[in-house]
Specification:
The protein has 6 helices and 10 strands, in the order βββαββαβααβαβαββ. It has helices at about 45-55, 75-80, 110-115, 130-145, 160-175, 185-195; strands at about 15-20, 25-30, 35-40, 60-65, 70, 85, 150, 180-185, 195-200, 205-210.
Amino acid sequence: MTTPPPSPAPASTLEVHGLRPLNLAPVEFAVAPGECLGVQGPSGSGKTVLLRAIADLDPNDGRVVLGEEDRDAMPAPAWRRRVRFVAAEPGWWAETVAEHFTDWPGQAAAAAELGLPAEIGERPVIELSTGERQRLALLRALETPPRVLLLDEPTAALDPASTEAVEALVAAKRQDGLIVLWASHDREQLRRVARRRLLVADGRVREERAPE
């Protein structure tokens, strides 16, 4: 009998208070359940640094809270199960795709939505294209549903059809209350996926609301 996926946790707002990542001025913002906040800026401006700081992957100062849960009040692995970072160049630690998933057959439908064949699970990771690895990293991050998803250029290597599929999948997950921070150099993409944007430049972060 197939085990059903875990139910999503109650929706909670992500609050960032005086967060100071490496080489960036303190940052302050909040993101509501189901909202996508874009992160925009030139290459090297600190977009990735900001996302990694929220996930507590690199040294930083400040306070990050998810609902009533304080990041500093729990072990880092527990926080990262709730707040998941998906790197532009994801890491892989086993030979085949399926070995990176708890239940690869259970991902067949989602994989198909992203244009990935079911048999890709048996392929060695080393044989995959960059775009295939990016889509699989997203599926891996969503297999055990997080409450916050931090996406670092998740479609940089994808064609328009695959990009549209990724955007649609993330939008569907937001309907369940998933909070998304989406870093991209593509301004048109951020206009599609986010009503609010953080602009990262010259060591500072400021917020900009997209036009209606």
